[in-house]
Design brief:
There is one protein chain. By secondary structure, this protein is α/β, with parallel strands linked by helices. It folds into 2 domains: 120 residues, Response regulator (Rossmann fold), CATH 3.40.50; 97 residues, Arc Repressor Mutant, subunit A, CATH 1.10.10.10. It has a 5-stranded parallel β-sheet with strand order 2-1-3-4-5, with helices on both faces. The protein has a 4-stranded antiparallel β-sheet with strand order 6-7-8-9, covered by helices on one side. The longest helix is centred in the middle third of the chain and has 17 residues. The relative contact order is 0.10.
């Protein structure tokens, strides 16, 4: 089922989340502060992280950035803070999702299942690949290369690019991307797309011009690079 690392300084919240996860067959590791979280992440296999932002020591955003620099494990932020700039900061640091406290346990469990399903099942996609110049999107291996160099995309970055690649030269609307990559609950959450498309463009480098923003509609991945 996967091992989940809960990083939360409130023991009551940590216990509630742990109990619900264990009931459903997940293994759970717990950390009450940033330093313990980093130590645990280095010691035990982790398949998903539930991360509070307000932690003793380093902030949750700092912990998120530290994890993302070393791993593409899904990170779901749990926070009582609702400010848009904080959400963007967490996403920029590498978070895959942002859940505002108080949250329903069933909603949280649904998001956990969605990310772990993407981790373990999505490799069953068709044996296709897309090549544009030296850019290669391998839909079987779930890897993206430029001149045989692996771009090391996170799972969410890859899922977004793969969705665009499957609709090559066609506009995919904001809500279509949000629901296919993150789920129905994310309709209208365009800041996710803005953040991730920005990160994808940086990693694509000279091929970033293949990703077109269509104002008011969505995004388009072109099949031809214009030199």
């Amino acid at each position: 089922m996967g091992n989940i690392l809960i990083v939360e300084d409130d023991p009551s919240i940590r216990k509630l989340v742990r109990v619900n996860l264990v009931k459903r067959g997940y293994s759970v590791s717990e950390a009450g502060d940033s330093h313990q979280a980093i130590a645990l992440f280095e010691q035990v296999p982790v398949d998903l992280v539930l991360l509070d932002l307000m932690l003793p020591g380093l902030s949750g955003v700092d912990v998120c950035a530290w994890i993302r620099a070393r791993s593409d494990v899904p990170i779901i932020v749990l926070s009582a803070r609702m400010e848009e700039d904080l959400k963007v900061a967490a996403l920029d640091a590498g978070a895959d999702d942002y859940v505002t406290k108080p949250f329903g346990q069933e909603e949280l469990l649904a998001r956990v299942r969605a990310f772990l399903r993407r981790t373990y099942v999505s490799a069953k996609t068709s044996d296709d690949r897309i090549e544009i110049g030296e850019l290669r999107i391998d839909l079987t291996a779930r890897r993206v290369y430029i001149a045989e160099k692996d771009l090391h995309l996170t799972k969410t970055e890859y899922a977004l690019l793969a969705e665009l690649a499957r609709h090559l030269d066609a506009i995919v609307t904001h809500d279509e991307l949000l629901t296919r990559v993150w789920g129905e609950a994310y309709r209208g959450s365009n800041h996710y797309l803005h953040t991730y498309l920005g990160r994808l463009r940086k990693k694509l480098g000279e091929y970033s011009d293949l990703l077109e923003t269509v104002p008011g509609m969505g995004y388009n991945l072109h099949s031809k690079k214009i030199y």
